[in-house]
Specification:
Number of helices: 7
Helix content: over 70%
Radius of gyration: 18 Å
Mean pLDDT: 92
Strand content: under 5%
Low-confidence stretches: none
Structural class: mainly alpha
Distance between the termini: 68 Å
């Protein structure tokens, strides 16, 4: 009897975390999209690598510190809003540089949505535990991140292409891992779960957009 009660309580907690995560994720995606639109409307320039990294890691640190308080939600919106602002100039550059730029952005958004929904549904429906991917994802993301910085600093197109392809695979894996982590009770903080999934979607979109831009054939 006690075992059944414990199991039932655990399921309630897991369902609550999953529901709160998707609700907050939806809100942050909308807010980030609004900030990206605002950034484009104001014709803001590219933030630059240093400002982007300092802002991202600084706000991520703030979210982590406040994850167990109500202020953590405000920190999440600050982080996702900032990332939206940095996304605006990128989208603007694509719509300006490519004759089919708007189509490329729409395709990247659609692809990102399809991949996220498909992988999330699979992780939930299958009930598989993807915890075994933790070490691989951590190492892969670190390597890809450093390679990406190197590609930007030294202007190596081939490396940049490889990094984008790697990030698509890594972010897809991270979506599977984090969703599985939630439904198996490994992640009980919906604020951190939201941030992880948001970052996965953000990087997935950017990587898809970059690859589509390269293979669009538009000079």
């Amino acid at each position: 009897m006690n075992t059944n009660v414990t199991t039932s309580s655990r399921r309630i907690v897991i369902n609550s975390v999953l529901r709160n995560t998707y609700q907050l994720l939806s809100a942050t995606l909308l807010f980030s999209g609004l900030m990206a639109y605002l950034s484009m409307s104001l014709n803001l320039p590219h933030f630059g690598l240093l400002i982007t990294l300092v802002g991202y890691f600084g706000l991520l640190f703030l979210v982590t510190r406040l994850r167990n308080s109500a202020f953590g939600i405000l920190a999440v919106f600050a982080l996702t809003g900032f990332m939206g602002l940095t996304l605006g100039p990128v989208i603007g550059a694509y719509t300006t540089a490519f004759s089919n730029g708007s189509e490329l952005v729409a395709m990247a958004m659609s692809g990102t949505g399809i991949i996220f929904l498909t992988l999330s549904f699979y992780a939930i429906a299958s009930g598989r535990d993807f915890n075994f991917m933790s070490g691989f994802l951590t190492a892969g993301i670190v390597v890809a991140f450093l390679a990406g910085i190197g590609a930007i600093l030294f202007s190596i197109p081939a490396l940049s292409l490889a990094v984008s392809a790697a990030f698509i695979l890594l972010m897809s894996g991270l979506i599977l891992f984090e969703t599985s982590n939630i439904i198996h009770g490994g992640e009980t903080n919906y604020i951190m779960a939201t941030v992880t999934l948001f970052i996965s979607i953000y990087n997935l979109f950017l990587s898809l957009l970059h690859l589509l831009g390269i293979f669009s054939g538009d000079d």
